[in-house]
Amino acid sequence: MNFDDKKVLIAYYSRRGENYVNGDVKNLEKGNTEIIAEFIQEFTDGDIFIIDSVKEYSPDYFKCIEEAKEELENNVMVELKENINNLNDYDFIFLGYPNWWGTIPMVVATFLDSNNFNEKIIYPFCTSEGSGLGTSISSIKKYAPSATIKDPLSIKGAEASISKDKVQIWINKL
């Protein structure tokens, strides 16, 4: 699809610092999902919106994923640092997230639940170390029921920095 005449938003949540990469915990200066979001921006000239929570997750990877698990199990709607004010201005939304516990992080659920996606098209993209999309698409539909969800992309987190061509192929197919 040619995005030249369309207004594109790339909204994503990404984790910098300690991450699980190919079986080890490594310190990343830039989160894997952020890398993919930047590739999408390059190919679509879209606007970036970083989804972030008021609450700081633990810098320790294993503590962080336990915090995320607790939020998921208790359906905690995480307070956003800020919300987007002009969602109606966009024709397409690329929604990025790491796959935590088989689905979207609750901060992404809050973002979806806090906005009206009526008549919006969402192209999900996620990073994971092996669980792919998991149940994230059904979770997106749960929190943004009026949106149309199309053509998701899953990228192995450890391969994010070398996935520019894969992202471009995906964008070109849309």
Write the layout of secondary structure elements.
Layout: E1 8-12, E2 17-21, E3 24-28, H1 32-44, E4 47-50, H2 61-73, E5 92-98, H3 106-113, E6 121-128, H4 136-143, E7 148-149, E8 153-156, H5 164-173
Parallel strand pairs: 1-4, 1-5, 5-6, 6-7, 6-8
Antiparallel strand pairs: 2-3
Helix pairs in contact: 1-5
* Shape call: globular
State the major sheet.
Answer: 6 strands, parallel
Average pLDDT level? 95
For the termini, the CA-CA separation is: 5 Å
* Class by alpha and beta content: alpha/beta
Low-confidence stretches: none
Compressed to H and E, one letter per element, the order equals EEEHEHEHEHEEH
Tell me the radius of gyration: 15 Å
- The number of helical segments is 5
Residue share in β-strands: 15-25%
Helix content: 25-40%
**Secondary structure: number of strands:** 8
Task: Write up this protein.
With 174 residues, the chain is of the alpha/beta class. Helices cover 30% and strands 23% of the residues. The chain has five helices and eight strands. The chain has helices at 32-44, 61-73, 106-113, 136-143, 164-173; strands at 8-12, 17-21, 24-28, 47-50, 92-98, 121-128, 148-149, 153-156. The strands form two sheets. Strands 1, 4, 5, 6, 7 and 8 form a six-stranded parallel beta sheet that branches. A two-stranded antiparallel ribbon has the order 2-3. The chain is globular, with a radius of gyration of 15 Å.
